[in-house]
Amino acid sequence: MIPYSNIQTQVSQALAEDIGSGDITAALIPENNQITAHLICREQAILCGKDWFNEVFQQLNVIRDITKIHWTVNDGDTITEDQRICTLTGNARSILTGERSAMNFLQTLSGTATSTAHYVKYLEGSEVKLLDTRKTIPGFREAQKYAVRCGGGYNHRHGLFDGILIKENHIMAAGSITNAVQNARNNSPHTLKIEVEIETLDELQEALLAKADILLLDNMKDDMLIQAVQINSTNHGHKAKLEVSGNITYERLSNLAHIGIDYISSGAITKHITATDFSLRFES
Amino acid sequence: MIPYSNIQTQVSQALAEDIGSGDITAALIPENNQITAHLICREQAILCGKDWFNEVFQQLNVIRDITKIHWTVNDGDTITEDQRICTLTGNARSILTGERSAMNFLQTLSGTATSTAHYVKYLEGSEVKLLDTRKTIPGFREAQKYAVRCGGGYNHRHGLFDGILIKENHIMAAGSITNAVQNARNNSPHTLKIEVEIETLDELQEALLAKADILLLDNMKDDMLIQAVQINSTNHGHKAKLEVSGNITYERLSNLAHIGIDYISSGAITKHITATDFSLRFES
Amino acid sequence: MIPYSNIQTQVSQALAEDIGSGDITAALIPENNQITAHLICREQAILCGKDWFNEVFQQLNVIRDITKIHWTVNDGDTITEDQRICTLTGNARSILTGERSAMNFLQTLSGTATSTAHYVKYLEGSEVKLLDTRKTIPGFREAQKYAVRCGGGYNHRHGLFDGILIKENHIMAAGSITNAVQNARNNSPHTLKIEVEIETLDELQEALLAKADILLLDNMKDDMLIQAVQINSTNHGHKAKLEVSGNITYERLSNLAHIGIDYISSGAITKHITATDFSLRFES
Amino acid sequence: MIPYSNIQTQVSQALAEDIGSGDITAALIPENNQITAHLICREQAILCGKDWFNEVFQQLNVIRDITKIHWTVNDGDTITEDQRICTLTGNARSILTGERSAMNFLQTLSGTATSTAHYVKYLEGSEVKLLDTRKTIPGFREAQKYAVRCGGGYNHRHGLFDGILIKENHIMAAGSITNAVQNARNNSPHTLKIEVEIETLDELQEALLAKADILLLDNMKDDMLIQAVQINSTNHGHKAKLEVSGNITYERLSNLAHIGIDYISSGAITKHITATDFSLRFES
Amino acid sequence: MIPYSNIQTQVSQALAEDIGSGDITAALIPENNQITAHLICREQAILCGKDWFNEVFQQLNVIRDITKIHWTVNDGDTITEDQRICTLTGNARSILTGERSAMNFLQTLSGTATSTAHYVKYLEGSEVKLLDTRKTIPGFREAQKYAVRCGGGYNHRHGLFDGILIKENHIMAAGSITNAVQNARNNSPHTLKIEVEIETLDELQEALLAKADILLLDNMKDDMLIQAVQINSTNHGHKAKLEVSGNITYERLSNLAHIGIDYISSGAITKHITATDFSLRFES
Amino acid sequence: MIPYSNIQTQVSQALAEDIGSGDITAALIPENNQITAHLICREQAILCGKDWFNEVFQQLNVIRDITKIHWTVNDGDTITEDQRICTLTGNARSILTGERSAMNFLQTLSGTATSTAHYVKYLEGSEVKLLDTRKTIPGFREAQKYAVRCGGGYNHRHGLFDGILIKENHIMAAGSITNAVQNARNNSPHTLKIEVEIETLDELQEALLAKADILLLDNMKDDMLIQAVQINSTNHGHKAKLEVSGNITYERLSNLAHIGIDYISSGAITKHITATDFSLRFES
Question: What residues of E are annotated to the active site?
């Protein structure tokens, strides 16, 4: 659902940094050679990045014969070790020149989708949603947020423009949580909920009174989280959504899945990357 | 040594994806508030990314007072847990708006520098150089290659335009290693060395006869590598540089450090990312 | 609060379309002539566009002496007929070359701010907020939304990316309002409220049951709006915010100001433009 | 006749500001739903903007089925209330995502074409041509100048690069009208006529002596204009074209149509916008 | 008089193609070395290109100490063999990295200015102006047209947008010269003169009757040109400006200087380039 | 082998500078006129630039019928006086609007290819390769380097990023040739050879000892070159490639062809341009 023009731009920048003034080794290959290659995944993973992969060859096809790509799976599908993912047939120079760029997209985005899925697995059976953050690789945020969705996670705000998150400094500047929430409600687009980051139960109480829509419970221990859920659920007239962040490990996810919070947000799923291992095997 | 205009472009794209139509929460902060903040590293690491971090605030300073940034360390320096890295003083809105983007650059690039340094440590005392590859995050290659240098590694070619690497498909198309090397020598810029990827000792012999400048020994076991070194060192009239790739683990690095090869190239140092953990602490 | 880089881009495009390959008449003026000029408003208005006006001369100053601009008012201020708005002193060529582009920004944006203020005046004494829409001049949305704020209005979503507005076609595709709201709640960022466009009181009931956050009452007559307010205010457990759109005239605004709705959105304030009349008078 | 690449750029910027990181509501609609919609005009107008409207869907079609658009009228045609302008058939997501941007182009440009036609109507039966000016919406000049032509008007210079217009400051700098015209003739491209803005009959005499090609009679009363026409028509050896500007109302146009001037230029037709009212109606 | 933003863009593209991912040899020079260098011209020439030369170092200065450039001459000045043109003082890396790009601008543009001056010399003592054409190096037209002015020539239209030139195909399509001129007069901006390319004296007569403003006499022999001048000068009621093109050699220029034509246009001065020979000498 | 996206960018910039806000004369031609035209070369030359020529019409084809271009020759072919190069059939407006831009590419690039071929002819029968330099038209380097290859020459490094060339200043900064070569070997990509510019035989000796890969013998007389070849060929253990530059005339090329050097580099083939003379003839 990423606008296609954004994918075009990302791919053209990736090709520019890799190809620059031209692929000098490709000149060794006759201009009209045809080849067939199979993309293999060498480990279990969640696939992500087909549109970027396709676009690489689309952009290289302009003056040569088209590269045909036949996929057997879709973004979001689980792929297994040694599974054949797609088959490419086309001009040898195009395929060899685009190979690395196309695979860099696929291995990076599948890596993020797969990491996300590992976290999500620990939340199975609960209603808690795993959210991403703004801790992403610069220039790659939209693509990574798409990968998070492919991995079963959900997106927090995309940036500073589409969500209100009131943090400590905003509160200090406004004088109090109450003031900050009130200011935000008066001046921000009415289509946005108001989220407040809190670190103590007192702040929680104040934020609930101010009718904040979402509370980000940052770096709280599990027992304090349980108290926070309790306070929110017994509050009269207004209940906030509860989001938990900070020190989210696999073990802790299982614990947090059933205590009554709504969301867990994790920077790790996008700021760390474990690239998925793909291989392109050429038919001889 | 990255051209500054490239840093400007990367930072402006990162700010665009984060700020979009504007930081709506920043409006809670009076326009002329001043703050001071300290950047802390929460784990031992190699610092990388100062120019990107500075540029974020440079671009946000245009219509407000300038953010002063006082650094105590340089790119490539080892930083320790809880060390204060730099201090920012300036307009509160600018600092809060730029915080996440600036730290995303720093944590990603320091992560790559630190991973590189971990590998390089195993090569201490030898002349073997650790090289990066083209397996990078799309759009981030130049920055990552700079991070590799900060971590004590060396750069392989930047892309398809500044190095010749003859692989299996090029050889098949040319008919033989001999032909491929000859074609490359005749047609490529004379300023570039010719590198050939080989997988068997027979191929090694042929490539040496063809006077290839560098041999990429891909996915060879250690004992075969030792034979390859032997063959090369006793070859008459021409000795190639030897580069090893494939399955490079920490343990194996120690073994490979002293068998007589020249370079080890690792995709892992750039395709995987373990972001370094930084924190921005505001003075109250 | 518009990111400065966006203003830079808009101004450079405006200068490109006006100056192209160069201002040929400017050559009649000696290169170092200095002039002073006063910007006058020829009618009562709300000022908007100072940053764009300044940026025009900023971009023209690069190789000549700087144009000093002394403003006596701010964006959002009411200015009166014949009031002196600012004084420019600097290189004659720069000022004459930039004059038209600078004034085109100011007259267009002040026009939108002023139109907005005319509407807002009719809502004085009520809590109802006047909202803009996505009916804007292509390429000028952000600037116009800023002008709306200067005129005392509020912004609806900036685009399709930062607000959910479920319309007839979305409802048909989802099968029912209930399904559509449920799908949106499950899949959209949790930071966004869910708004549904409704045209009948039955739809209103269904949307309230589905706990839509905001209801857009489109093209309803005043008596039906009064019923809608009544239904919403007596609904148990969930009250939506009510937004009214369609056929918003000055007269109707007065009527709607006190019936209990929350927002009125108007396409007219941004899709129509009545440019404010400014004049630049040169000191002789 | 606007270069197509300029239309592509304008549309891609309009889509970027509206769609940003993606149309979040569109996700409620199944990926392959097909719909048909009819574009209706709700008032009499001159159509303008088909190429921009088409281009919106062209850019959204890239990865989905193509949207077919069947038009029944052309740019420049008069369309009547409730007339069906075109029919769109295609992917529901594409059509809903592009609807607002496409209509924003059409309503703005048809608005300018229609305003122009209102003015032109008062000049019927005369040889006087209605001209536009450089008072346009920033970034939209070329498109508006095209709309003026669709409405029966003519274009004055596009910018500072393709016409010489000597104003008061240029004259002061050159010392006299005579000097200014002489300098312009010596130094400007010989393909351009020389136009001088004059405010008195003495200036008119001097400009005629200097053989200016066009005289811009700015803010003159009707009786002075009649004198100016007289002086020009009885001048020996050189007659200038006469252009009138300032306070051009409908009533005055009728008066000016037959006094012997050549052109009337109006800022109002492009600096003010009265968007034409279109509506997209979906087949159920 | 070229807009500065155009110079910025050209220089940044030139630096991008030369520096790419970084100047690898520059790393041999310590980061803070200072040097002084003198720019020498090794042959007599007309200088052109200072702004481009300066801008190269401006763009390289962003993160290092500024390069100071002290010029002793201006664009358009005649410079002699071994004359010192300017002195640069600054960071050694900046100067060495920018040297080639800066000199490429200067040698190319001074070459065009110098070639132009050679032609213009043959027209001394006459009123005939030497004009350039649209036969330029792609992407370099504006810069070359500026160089032509520095060399004492004049500019014909910049492109297809700022001048009307009716050629054979336009005449064929319109049916006759008369029709073509009439159509152009009715539909083109009134600020532009109408130029017609003619090859016979009959066409000349028809074009004069149609009151074309300028006649381009293409590929006519000298005696036919003399007849053309005669016909034009004795024509009643309308005299056109006469421009001559085709086979313009130095010898012929002297002949054409005094036969009564107004302009001579030459493609050679911009389509051929004889780069001026500059040398940068470093102080040791 | 130039990346197609680079050709697209160059052509779109060339069209922008020529067409700007539109081809005003083209309006004289009915929208659907079809024409056929033949491209003729008026002198013997080496053809270069087909892809740019084609791309011009490709970009103009978007909203009109396609222009069909039938070529009879390829880039690198020798073409003779009056030879028909290609035939264009298509919309008259497209062909007339694109004609000049398309031919500007072809005449400039064929000019460079042809100049190169003139030099190369003098090296026939020898193994010496003619190289280009970085002395190119700004913004046109890649295209010119392609033209050099079409003319039978070879490319030196494309820019500062893909080759190491140690010059006098680098040596001074490093302290000696020995140090400079050593530093370069330690810090530059191992895929690049190390070239050193030398002016004396002592420097040659030192560079050979330092095992520089390539020696650039700059501005040496022929007899000194012969000595240099002698020293290199009798050096033990390491022989460098020898490149000669400075004052390369046709006569000297013949002398240098057989003295044992490897490369001759010439700035003249790219810094000077003698455009090839093409003509487009329209069928009537």
Answer: 100, 135, 167, 197, 218
Residue ranges of chain A whose pLDDT lies below 50: none
Q: Is E278 helix (H, G, I), strand (E, B) or coil?
A: strand
Distances (CA, A) of D121 to C272, D114, D117, D152, D254: 22, 11, 6, 9, 9
For chain A, the first-to-last Cα distance in angstroms comes to 37
- CA atoms of C118 and A70, how far apart (whole Å): 60
Determine the 3-state secondary structure of B261 from DSSP: coil
Q: What does the alpha-carbon distance between residue F141 and residue F159 come to, in Å, rounded to a whole number?
A: 9
Q: Do the first three CATH levels of F4-120+273-282 and F123-271 match, i.e. the same topology? A: no
Q: Report d(CA D59, CA C193) in Å as an integer.
A: 29
Q: Would you tell me how many other CB atoms lie within 10 Å of the CB of residue E42?
A: 12
- pLDDT tens, residue by residue, E143-181: 999 999 999 999 999 999 999 999 998 999 889 999 999
- Residues of chain E with Cβ-Cβ distance to C20 below 8 Å are 3
Shortest Cα distance, chain A CAs vs residue C34, angstroms: 42
Look up the pTM and report it. 0.95
DSSP string, B16-33: HHHHTT--TGGGGS-TT-
Confidence of residue D31 (pLDDT cuts 50, 70, 90): confident
Average pLDDT of the segment spanning D130-142: 97
Could you tell me the residue ranges of all domains in chain F? Answer: 4-120+273-282, 123-271
pLDDT (tens digit, 9 = 90+) per residue, A54-97? 999 999 986 657 899 999 999 999 999 999 999 999 999 999 99
User: At D242, which amino acid appears?
Assistant: L
Is F251 exposed, middle or buried (CB count within 10 Å of its CB: 0-12, 13-18, 19+)?
Answer: exposed
Cβ <8 Å between D19 and A2:
no
In whole angstroms, what is the distance from residue A35 CA to residue A282 CA? 7
Res. C65: pLDDT tops 80: no
CA distances (Å), origin C269, targets A192, C7, C122, C153, D271: 22, 21, 14, 10, 15
Residue type, B132: D
What is residue E236's predicted lDDT score, i.e. its pLDDT? 83
Which of E84, E53, E88, E58 lies closest to E70, judged by CA?
Answer: E88
Cα Rg for chain B, rounded, in angstroms?
Answer: 23
Record: contact C62-E4, CB cut-off 8 A: yes
Q: Which residues contact E116 (CB under 8 A, 6 or more apart)?
A: E46, E130, E132, E147, E148, E150, E151, E152, E153, E269
**Is the model's pLDDT at F130 over the cut of 80?**
yes
Interface test with C, best of D21, D28, D170, D280 (most C CBs within 10 A): D28
| E-F C-beta contacts closer than 8 Å | 202
Burial A157-171 (b: 16+ CB within 10 A, else e): bbbbbbbbbbbebbb
Contact C195 A193 (CB under 8 A): no
Mean of the per-residue pLDDT values for chain F? 94
In CATH terms, the superfamily for domain A4-120+273-282 is Quinolinate phosphoribosyl transferase, N-terminal domain (3.90.1170.20)
CA–CA separation, E214 vs D191, rounded Å? 8
- ipTM summary value: 0.96
Q: Which of E15, E22, E62 sits opposite B1 (nearest CB)?
A: E22
Ranking A31-35, B45-49, C59-63, E46-50 by mean pLDDT, the lowest is: C59-63
| Residue A173 DSSP SS3 | helix
Residues facing residue C164 across a β-bridge: C194
pLDDT in tens, E51-95: 999 999 999 976 656 899 999 999 999 999 999 999 999 999 999
Q: What is the CATH number of domain A123-271?
A: 3.20.20.70
Contact A24, A57 (CB under 8 A): no
Distance of alpha carbon C245 from alpha carbon C274, whole angstroms? 21
